[in-house]
Amino acid sequence: MVSRGEIVTTRAELAEWVGREILPLERDLRSWLRRRVATPTDVEDIVQECYCRLARLHDVSHITQPRAYLYAVARNLLQNQLKAARVVRLEAIAELDMEWRSDDPSPEDVVMARSELGRVQAALATLSERARSIFVMRRVEGMSQREIAQAMGVSEAVVENDASRSLRAILQLLTDPDVESDRGVRGGKRRNA
Questions:
Q1: Beta bridge partners of 185
Q2: How remote is the C-alpha of 153 from its chain's centroid?
Q3: Which residues are paired to 31 by β-bridges?
């Protein structure tokens, strides 16, 4: 039997000491913690961590007042928990942001999308009717070159050339704001101002 102030040398002796000196204090400790923390889960976490800390001890000879020792461990854990609650992890903020973010776009997203749509429409307006139709059928409707050629009554080579030139022209207009908007692809060829 291990008494207060004795060295614990085995796990069994430590378990005996915890059962005799600490376990009877658990009910009072839980009551004390409930008055100081927000949730029952916090109480459970702190009590369990107290037992984990006690289980790591190799020696209890320095513990002359088990009640005071247990409450000191619990108080320190509670203080650490309160400090951690004040320091918010960036990951937690990101998680909350993702949880609160709805599927609806934000006003900023709507404005940016409308601006981008306007730029695309302006770029499309610089294309000839045939080039614009080919571009829309290919990129928006997802039609194959063969389907477009059949629908428009032109060769696949014409579709390929117009689609390629149109894409280059639109990308240039979207990525280079200095390109004049009245320059574009007309009938498959660039028109000079």
A1: 190
A2: 50
A3: none
**pTM exceeding 0.90:** no
Question: Which pLDDT value is given to residue 163?
Answer: 87
d(CA 131, CA 166): 6
Cβ atoms of 48 and 89 closer than 8 Å: no
pLDDT reading at 142 higher than 60: yes
Q: Which residue carries 């030139």 as its tokens?
A: 165
- Can you name the residues that pair with 190 across neighbouring β-strands? 185
User: What pLDDT, on the 0 to 100 scale, is given for residue 117?
Assistant: 83
Q: What are phi and psi of 29, to 5 degrees?
A: -60, -45
The rounded distance, in Å, linking the Cα atoms of 188 and 167 is 12
Which residue, chain included where needed, has tokens 């294309």?
127
Two structure tokens written together for 164: 């390629």
Token pair recorded at residue 152:
């428009």
User: What gap in Å lies between CA 152 and CA 159, rounded to an integer?
Assistant: 9
CB 10 within 8 A of CB 59: no
165 close to 185: Cβ distance less than 8 angstroms: yes
pLDDT attached to residue 169: 83
DSSP-assigned letter for residue 18: I
Model confidence pLDDT, tens digit, residues 55-105: 888 888 888 999 999 999 999 998 888 777 776 555 555 655 555 555 677
| Helix and strand numbers, DSSP H then E, in the chain | 9, 2
